[in-house]
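Q: Give me the 3D complex with adenosine-5'-triphosphate.
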Amino acid sequence: MLKLAQRTTRRLRGAHLAIPLLALLVAFFAIPVLELMRRSFLDADGALTMQSYADFLGTPAYRTILFRTFFVAVICTVVCVLFAYPYAYLMTLAGPRVRRVLLVLVLLPFWTSLMVRTYAWLVLLQDTGPIKAALEAIGLGQVHLIRNTAGVVIGMAQILLPFMVLPLYNNLQKIERSDLLAAQSLGATPLRAFWRAYFPQSLPGLFAGGVLVFILALGFYITPVILGSPQNSMMSQLIVRQVTERLDWAGGGAMAVVLTVLTLVFVGLMSRVVNVQQAFGGTGDRK
Amino acid sequence: MTVAVDTDLALKLRGVSKQYPGTDAAAVSGVDLDIRRGEFVTFLGPSGSGKTTTLNMIAGFISPTGGQILLDGKDIADLPPHRRNLGMVFQNYALFPHMSVWDNVAFPLVERKYPKEQIRERVRAALEMVNLTGFEKRRPRELSGGQQQRVALTRALVFDPPILLMDEPLSALDKKLRQRLQLEIKRVHREVGITFLFVTHDQEEAMALSDRVVVFDHGRIEQVGTPDELYRRPATRFVAEFLGDSNLIDGRLVTSDGTVALEAPEGRIPLAGPPAPSDGEHCVMFRPEDVRVTSGEDDAAAWKGTVREVVYLGSERRVIVTTETGRDVTARTSGETTGVPRVGDAVGLRFSASNAWLIPTTG
Ligand SMILES: Nc1ncnc2c1ncn2[C@@H]1O[C@H](COP(=O)(O)OP(=O)(O)OP(=O)(O)O)[C@@H](O)[C@H]1O
Ligand SMILES: [Mg+2]
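A: Here is the predicted complex, encoded as structure tokens.
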């Protein structure tokens, strides 16, 4: 008991250093969010009601948008993992010089604004753009990469890639390479060695990066607006439309609350599933 | 001399060499070595002498740029590490941090697709052998260094490999624990009876553990022999200096009236033999225990000198005597209190003629 108390006080020492940031967060984040939540439960006369939630979840078109938003976020996360894992792995193998170059290449997108990058994708992906021309040249000319979900995923995944690479690299770089050799000396093929001795150790990084990308993807606005179309809009666009065009703060708030709650549930479930150190490492019959 | 029949050999290295890409000197060159079944062989050498490189070529992590490695008489050049069936203990143990002790030890059996029942039985027995029963569910980081070491050893042995390779497995531990684990490794070696190939740069460890020691320097084998052979009859100056304290005295060997003596600036040291291959410049080694410190008035002393330092070692003392020409000679005396020389004393030095060893080459 005493020990716990001591540890807590030790942890809290210096907590006052966080006060400025906390004050900022309360004033400009917590209060507006809580206010939005409060409004989502009120009708036009200020009476308590769940009508906004019923309207939102009861409208099939809205449900489709909600579903699409999660779908796009999942696809973006998967695409990011597929590109980031080999990249981060390569970074751990590279010498210090090459590693620095690789790191700068990851961070490069942060040096230009989101808007500029998205318009750059617009130029690349549009029907008169170079990518379409290249695809036509190899006989895949019918593919449209703009004004649809494919375009949105491409743009978002590229923009979100650093958020996957950095936590993952941070994790991979701590894994001992000798574990791979040890696994092979113990009879595992290189692939099995990777799968059983290395990959499970990278799950925390994968999870951290995955959650980051996933949550950011759920709230993306500019990229879907520019690369997508109103026919396949996402939640952020819907919420903006609700608030700015229909001036329906309660409806927008309800949508935001549902999105947030679902996000938390989703992330909670993922953390359950990903806590599988046992599942990956185990023979299943420890005593 | 007995010539080992090939079937007695667990491992045979023939002219094995390795030059890493982008380097101009070979890390290992022309290593020839025969290792018999059940032997405990240690690679000993200073840092960068090629011990790890040689071991990794045997394990299959590095491919040689020259020569042959024969396991049970078969060239294993094309065999990847996971098919060589050799146990290996890494310097940092390389225990899988995300697996329990049990799963770590079961790993090689699972990869070999042993039946579940058999895995359970083997892992249990193996952990019992190293006194780790009760630690099955712990993660490696929840174990002490010595316990981790034992898990690594168990994991490398549980699938009955014909050879166990160990790269400086004790170097991360403190001296007391090292000595305890040395005994344990020796015991395990006796119990499992397979060939152990051990790497260290600690000569005491090599002497304590091994049937035979292979001394490496600059990627080459300097000498192979039992600890006693290496200590008593080093083939090169390097081996003499690397293993234990030694006094290496260069001088002229002269034979007169049938007796041999070494002529050095400080005086003549009579030798009992072996007869020199030829008179002339040679290097003769005396171990500290073969040098006796006498009083300054000892007329029969070969050399005279002044005590520079006396180091107390418990059961004995190491006395360093500086001769007139400024050469340091190390002697070891028993711990008796009477007649112990003190720093600054003028003393005589006698050399045990029968234990003198003529270094065959001047390498
Ligand atoms: N991957 C590598 N690339 C280039 N040179 C290397 C590589 N690994 C080792 N070397 C060089 O090869 C030589 C032998 O190295 P090795 O690791 O075999 O020495 P060692 O005897 O095990 O030394 P230590 O006692 O320090 O572990 C050294 O000069 C080392 O610098
Ligand atoms: Mg080494």
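A quick observation: Residues B 20, 23, 27, 45, 47-53, 201 surround adenosine-5'-triphosphate (ligand 1) (CB under 6 Å).
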